[in-house]
Backbone:
DNA sequence: ATTAGCACTCGAAAGTTGAGAGTGCCAACA
DNA sequence: TGTTGGCACTCTCAACTTTCGAGTGCTAAT
């Protein structure tokens, strides 16, 4: 039953391609012309009717062309679409932007999402799935009697700092002492290992009657929480409005609000992020109600320190999967190369693009 | 000619109020009921006709109600609207959010715009107009032979850091030397005073044959550029879609794209930012073509170190000026109190809300 | 100066029509 | 048996028409 003739495949592919291009239901005549199988519209009509029966296509109404169902898209993504290779200009463009963006600032996640959005012309979001972070070292810089700077280096090699102003005076000795104490007992531990007990004992050991220890400990907790909390950045929501399926302002508004809220795109339990594969979630395959008639393409990259980042792009189900997947894949590879630890993948790796996705096929 | 009877004022105010509320042209009957001047719809019709002649109102078509012109809004904003006082809950809410947001992170500008957008339910943007920033002090933390951390404290009391990894080894002595040299000659100067000459001489003085000086100097330049470049943050663009005047997706799209681009809201030459006044720009008063039929409300706050920040809110000309102005004003005051140097304004200051704006009256 | 009354205007919403694209099916054909 | 041309049928979309009602402007009376 699930086997499907070669010609049907070609026809299905033609329908999807055409529909992606025009956003209009595709008729038999159009297919007869574009896909040059040597047969007439009438024949194609018969095939189309069967494809509708099988659930790959549907008709908006009796006398319109055909439109792919989510199942049709799934088939297309899994087997039919030609894995697009980026042109040289495109790869160069992306590399150039990457170099530019990344050295500019390292609040990368925001830039990554903006970049992905610009490249694909769809809304994009980037998120980090940080693993357990610990503090590598503490430094306390004495500025004046009422001011010092906390500098903390984390296991993922990012550095955070905070300026602390005090209502009272401290001497350099105290700072010295606190510094070495914190370096001794607060490094290499995760957030939940910072207990009131630990803070207390440090306070006593440092002879700190002014509660400086708690200030420092609070900063440590803040930094650790902050770095191990997954954060999301969304950009380009407004690009939705360019898509004809979002001509309805209400519909657009709903989805945009959802995205702006840092929408949860991935199935929470999903252990996604193997090698540089790209995952596609089509319409109802999405968990979030708000995404049920949109599609999401996700790539994952190595962000160093055993951390993976995700870049996702959201669009109508009639999305240019091929182009988006190619771009995201290349982008992810580029990011991995720049941020990742370990083995740098070879430069040309975007060719062997693997696409994986929900294969449960059980739609409808 | 420009004098206007008391009753006309009341009627104009009533029209604007009603139109702001309903977004529908306002008829004579409706006014007769809401504004209780003791007179009949017929009388009001006469007055309305005159207000149209004077240019304060207009009719979308012969037999519809009246709608305020930009000039009408201007009059309303300048003289007629009741300066709204926030309720206790509202002020508390804002203060609570401020406390929360501000201590969370000091990449404030982003949070400020988000906050403003949430409060007003319009798109908002925040921007800084940094003045000349200098470096107060340098610290270099030795991590290991190939790694050190640069910490830089700026005149505006923000602290920046950067992890530097070297392909070669350095000893602590060198770090020591560089640190004191940079503290001696790179502090208190602005970006353009960092010349190749200066870098060179430092390099020689430190006996630095490995170009560390240039790395450090580059960081200094980066930080200074970064802090003295005005940055903008835009949030809540999607709230536009809630407004009936942006039901047209194209219109919405245009404006949203403009905003996302970090749109320039203020007349470039504008020396705005006295005390905590609020400025309103109505429709054609805006310089940017894209804003010609929208309105902007802007407040300015003291961001410390002789710097002022701006918070702006964008909406249709039919915007709730009174509420927005009150909220922005209070928000700006709160920010000034928290970030500002100098004299903290008293807690209840949002009452004496001053609104200034373009008074040129020359529309049409 | 105000008001009631009334004819008039005009836009929005609902209904009507016609054209065109695309189908399904049938009978003919290789 | 798979393919094809032909043709009647269906259904949407756009254009046009009709209806309805809100709101006006004017006039004459108070």
Residues:
């Amino acid at each position: 039953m699930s086997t499907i003739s070669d010609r049907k495949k070609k026809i299905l592919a033609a329908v999807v391609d055409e529909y992606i291009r025009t956003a209009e239901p595709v008729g038999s005549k159009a297919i007869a012309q574009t896909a040059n199988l040597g047969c007439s519209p009438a024949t194609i009509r018969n095939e189309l009717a069967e494809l509708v029966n099988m659930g790959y296509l549907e008709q908006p109404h009796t006398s319109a062309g055909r439109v792919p169902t989510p199942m049709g898209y799934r088939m297309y993504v899994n087997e039919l679409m030609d894995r697009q290779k980026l042109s040289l200009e495109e790869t160069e463009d992306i590399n150039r932007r990457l170099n530019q963006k990344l050295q500019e600032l390292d609040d990368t996640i925001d830039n990554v999402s903006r970049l992905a959005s610009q490249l694909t012309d769809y809304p994009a979001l980037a998120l980090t799935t940080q693993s357990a972070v610990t503090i590598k070292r503490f430094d306390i810089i004495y500025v004046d009697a009422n001011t010092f700077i906390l500098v903390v280096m984390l296991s993922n090699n990012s550095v955070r700092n905070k300026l602390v102003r005090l209502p009272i005076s401290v001497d350099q000795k105290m700072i010295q002492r606190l510094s070495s104490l914190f370096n001794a007992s607060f490094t290499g531990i995760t957030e939940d290992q910072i207990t009131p007990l630990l803070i207390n004992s440090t306070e006593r050991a440092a002879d700190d009657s002014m509660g400086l220890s708690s200030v420092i400990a609070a900063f440590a907790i803040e930094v650790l929480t902050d770095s191990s909390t997954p954060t999301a950045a969304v950009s380009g929501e407004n690009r939705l409005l360019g898509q004809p399926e979002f001509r309805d302002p209400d519909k657009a508004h709903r989805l945009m609000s959802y995205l702006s809220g840092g929408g949860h795109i991935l199935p929470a339990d999903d252990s996604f992020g193997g090698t540089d594969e790209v995952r596609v979630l089509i319409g109802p395959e999405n968990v979030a109600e708000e995404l049920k008639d949109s599609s999401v393409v996700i790539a994952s990259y190595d962000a160093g320190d055993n951390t993976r980042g995700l870049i996702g792009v959201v669009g109508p189900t009639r999305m240019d999967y091929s182009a988006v997947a190619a771009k995201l894949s290349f982008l992810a590879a580029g990011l991995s190369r720049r941020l990742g630890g370990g083995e740098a993948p070879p430069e040309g790796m975007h060719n062997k693009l693997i696409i994986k996705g929900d294969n449960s096929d059980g739609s409808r």
Q: What stands out?
A: The CA atoms of residues 304 and 340 of chain B lie 4 Å apart. Residues 88-130+230-357 of chain B form a domain with the Beta-Lactamase fold (CATH 3.30.450.40). Chain B has three domains: 6-68, 88-130+230-357, 135-228.
